[in-house]
Structures are given as structure tokens and as C-alpha cells.
Please model this.
Amino acid sequence: MAKYKVLLLENIHTIARELFVQRGFDVETAKSAMTADALRDKLRGVHVLGIRSKTLVTKDVIESAPSVFAIGCFCVGTANVQLEPAKDQGVVVFNAPFSNTRSVAEMMISHIVSLARQIGQRNIEMHQGIWNKKSDGCYEVRGKTLGIIGYGNIGTQVSGLAEAMGLRVIYYDVLSKLTLGNAKQYVELEELLKESDFVTLHVPATPLTGGMIGVDELKLMKKGAYLINASRGTVIDVPALAQALRDGHLGGAAIDVFPEEPEGNTDAFKSPLLDIPNVILTPHIGGATEEAQSSIGREVANTLIRHVIEGATEGAVNFPIVHTNPPTRGTHRLLNVHRNVPGVLKDINRIVSSSGANIQSQHLATDPQVGHLVMDFDRPLPVESVEEIETLAASIRTRMVG
Model:
């Protein structure tokens, strides 16, 4: 197998490096994100890039790194990677949509209890030497209503845990979802906001979700209700939330994500929510557990390894999905990414047939822009045949494995 070079940034869990090394990859790691200029320099000769949420992979960065053919986002979101330009260059992007769901869901439940019992305020007071034993404004969560906005991987986990604690669960999602337990789907967001004692947000950052909780939505919430967000910082109008809390309309909030976040742990954090005592502020740690980071490291590394050595694109967020098995003994595999135009497969088959190689299997998946082809032969293709495929007008990227 060719020696592939991997660059892992942002202190990705060590299990990822171990898995790559076990398969013979050359791995370099760095603890922090990189600027675009630094990243362009560092990507020379790199085949696989691993990042978390702070590294921005723009169209310019992608086009300046022709050796890179796969990017692994060791997190849930992929908003920091320009997915379409990556696809245009034949670069497959993967993420970890499931691995931190339990960690985030457990933190949501802890925030629900902490807000209901005013744990944050009592903690601050105790550190100031103030003994303020009180029950006014403190509640059990049993029998209260939890409104979940976004009933996906995390929302459903929160739903199950909340019901186990005796909460009534209602949820809103733009899609019809299979309801778990006794939860009930609401068609209108406004109705959910009016009925909920607690509201948790579990939605991606999209044009539809940007600012979805603003002045009007906050006014609809019950007086004394609580708002919890560990999804994306852009979904809440933060100044409006701060005002609703200062006015006493909301009983409290717990916020883990923000529209603008510090680049690193040494940078200052600023927010309109500072100094509001009934707000729990955490530094984007919903998925920051040892278990979640290990699981993410393992999941994304294994997905990338399968793509490198097999051509599999299962789990890709920007590419046609091809399910593969490892090349069998004695076979040789061609991977080709091409623009989805008529006649490409005919041209490639012609070149392969002319070389004398026998095609043992082929798998093609397409979307409106590109096609991803995996072909197995009984012998290696001659270099000139591979080069001929590479130079086809529609070809974007071609390589041999096995």
C-alpha cells in the first residue's frame, strides 16, 4: 500500500492517530487550529486532513492542496468546511453525527435540573461565602413539560432520558419523525413554546434556523420558563435572550454555544449574557467527554481509513455513497471521481478493455454533480491506462489501491 500522509489538527483524540499508524499511515498532529495561510503551507503532500470545529477549510485552501482527497471532521458539524468546492475537487468530507449524542443529552438533563433548583446561583453565592438556603422558585422537574426543538439524534436521546425522570415531552421538527415513548410532535413551534416549562434546542445551523428564537418567540414562552441551547450559537438572538432574562420573563437559561466563540482557551469570552446570575454558561462542551471524544476519534478515523484503502464513501456528507468491501486477494482497484456527464463509464471501460485487464466488479454512484466509480481488476492497470483515465475531460481525481 502507498504511504499516505495524514494531518490531524485541534488535539483530536489519540485513538485516531493510533488507528492510522496501525494501518501504516504517516501521521502528523497539532494541538490547535491553523490560519488559512498556515494550513495551505502545511497541506503540501498531505492526503487526509482531520479537523474539529475551529479550522476553516475554504475553497482557496482546498484548491491549493491537490494531494488532499479526504477530510474528516472529528465533530458533528461541517459548517467550517466548504462542501461543494471540496466535492468539485474530488475531496470527500466525513463527520461523526452520532458519537457525542449521549454526552450532549446527559448535559441537557443536568441543565434542566440545575436550572429548576437554581444550582448555579447557589454555587456562586457559596463561593462568595453566602449561605442562602431557600426553596422559593426551586422546583422538581417531575410533571413539568419539556419542549424539544429538533427531534434528531440528540433530541431523541434527551426525550428518552427526560421521560424516565417523569417529564412530559413534546417536540417540534420540520420533518415527521417516529415518536419515542410518550412524546408528542407539535406541528407549530409557537404552540410548543407556549406550553413548555423547559425548551431545549437541537438543530443545525441553516438559513431556516438562524435567529429562530428571537424577541417574538421569547415572548411566547411561559413566564418563568427556561431555555437551553447546545446546538448552534446562531439559532438564538442572544441580546433578546439577555433582555428577557433581565426583565424576569424567563426563569433562566443554559447556553453552551455562541454566535462568536474564542479561538482558544487563552482568548477572552464576551457575551450579553455575562453577569446574569440565572444563566449557566459553558464553553461549547456538550460533547466534551472522554467517552465522546474517543468514540469520535475512532468513528471518523475508521471511516477515513476505509475510504483511503477501499474507496468507500459511507458516511460522507458531500459525496455519492458507494458501499464497498476490501479488495480481495489478487485484485486491484481503481477509484475515479468524475463530473456526472454522459459517456464517462463508456470511456473508462474502453480504456480498461484496451489494457487487457478483466473487470471483476464495478460500483458507480452519482449525484447531480459528480460520479464516484470503484472498479476491481484481475491485474494492475498499466500506468499509461491510469493516466489516460486521469486525462479524460470529465475526470476529477483517479487513483489505484490494492
About this structure: The chain has three domains: 1-100+290-318, 101-281, 320-402. The radius of gyration is 25 Å. The mean pLDDT is 95. Residues 100 and 292 are 5 Å apart (CA to CA).
